[in-house]
Amino acid sequence: MKKRIIAACCAAAAIAAGLYAIRASQMRLEEPVFLTHYIDCRQCSAGKTIMLNYVTDKSDDRSVVSVSFPECPELTFDVFDSETNLKYRYHKMRRVFLQSKLDGTEPLAPAAATTAHVEFSDGTEGDFDIGQVIMENIPEPQERLVTAQNTGANNVGNSTDTMLALEDCTLTGITSAFDESCGAGVSITIDGGESSAPLALHKDDTVTFDAAINVSQPYVYNAYSLDQTLNFSDESGNIYRGYLQNIRYEPNFTESGIIAFLKDRGALD
Fold first, then answer.
1. How open is the CA angle 158-162-164, to the nearest 5 degrees?
2. How far is CA 74 from the centre of its chain?
3. Would you indicate the residue range of the signal peptide (predicted)?
């Protein structure tokens, strides 16, 4: 009797192992798949960091050693690849931090990077779809109309920035390099909704901007950083720009969410 029970248990374990092996082969990723990122990287001067998330096969232990953007060849980066603690049955999430090496005094006109050329620790390399990263560098002006006083953010897109006016000026509007076709819309209120642009500010006035990201399907499994540009003018009509740079959204993945994302990207059948 015991032998039959043991045999049945062994048979069940063998069947379970076989089913897992079949499923694992169906879920296998030959190459990493990068999340569809939408990042507004206004200040690409030295030290500015861009974080890209990607999904790999669970058995893929390669790290990233180099990243470049064919559409922005003038940009170079130091690379810091790190594995997150998000591990799933068949896959794992990793992230790579890119720290710009661009001279801060060098202007860079806006350019959209949709492809990253990635080199891995085993010598393999490839081009990967990363969504859209807007690269731009505007050297910091000697004069500013406002300065950041308090900032705060969380990973679901909510942020608060309080600005202090250094002299009399007017907030003429708020603009973004992205539209809602990227799958995320940014809503901003000024002073809790009591004010709107254009808004006249006097020296030592403060103004608070509250931002939130509204993510739509099927883009819920993307990562966003959608900085907004604040447009100011002084009493002489000179134009200045400031930025809301804490607007972030990172998804919380589940096993089924990872699989749905990979199927949506065409990486799995």
1. 165
2. 21
3. 1-21
Q: Are 98 and 46 in contact (CB under 8 A)?
A: no
192 contacts 208 by C-beta, under 8 angstroms: yes
Looking at residue 155, the DSSP 8-state letter turns out to be T
Looking only at the bridges linking them, the beta strands covering 223-225 and 64-68 are: unpaired
Taking a C-beta distance cutoff of 8 angstroms, is the pair 67, 79 a contact? Answer: yes
Question: To 5 degrees, how large is the angle CA 82–CA 86–CA 88?
Answer: 130
> Beta strands 91-100 and 49-57: pairing type?
antiparallel
pLDDT tens digits, the chain, 269 residues: what are they? 665 655 555 555 555 455 555 666 777 998 999 999 999 888 888 888 899 999 999 999 999 999 999 999 989 999 998 877 788 999 999 999 999 998 878 888 888 999 999 999 999 999 999 999 999 888 776 678 898 888 888 777 889 999 999 999 999 999 988 877 788 889 999 999 999 999 999 999 999 999 998 888 777 788 899 889 999 999 998 888 888 888 888 888 889 989 999 998 899 98
Whole-Å CA distances, 2 to 9, 11, 15, 19: 10, 14, 20, 26
**Both structure tokens of 80:** 């810091």
- By DSSP bridging, strand 169-175 and strand 199-201 are antiparallel
Task: Enumerate residues 6+ apart whose C-beta is below 8 A from 54.
Answer: 32, 33, 34, 35, 93, 94, 95, 96, 128
State the DSSP string of 39-78.
EEE---BTT-EEEEEEEEETT----EEEEE-TT-TT--EE
DSSP symbol at 178:
-
